[in-house]
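Reviewers of the previous submission asked for a worked example of the structure-prediction workflow described in the proposal, so we include one complete record here. The input consisted solely of the amino acid sequence. No template or homolog information was supplied to the procedure at any stage.
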Amino acid sequence: MAEKVTKLQFIVHRDRIAVMNYLTDPDRFVSVHPLIYQMTALPGGDYLVREKVSLGLFPYRFSYTASISAFPDEIHISASVMGLTHINMLFRFETASGSTQVTEKLKIESVLPITNFMASFFEKQHRQLFDNIEKALT
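From that input alone, the workflow returned the following structure tokens.
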């Protein structure tokens, strides 16, 4: 199984608690995420996540399970996609000059040779996600 660990950083010019609320509330999360269009609560606290990715001219829709664990200064999101790829995201939040600094540790494990591609893809999507959160809090 191939593994890729990446550290990403984002600055959101908004309050830390408000930013964190967008990552822990499924309705808010869906409203700002560039690809996820639905999250449904499952028994045990997990979620069924529905996502749409454009592959050239064709949209590809798929679903997977994810869990979200929130703590005072960090959020952990874990997902398993088709049993082939496991994604762990640890977001840490710090207040800096009235803004929120988000440090993300992204770990992707897959039996497929896609970890480098996925890490780059996540960086672009999460940059858009945090830009969308900032705009939503305006």
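The longest helix spans residues 115-136. We consider this example representative of the routine output the project will generate in years two and three.
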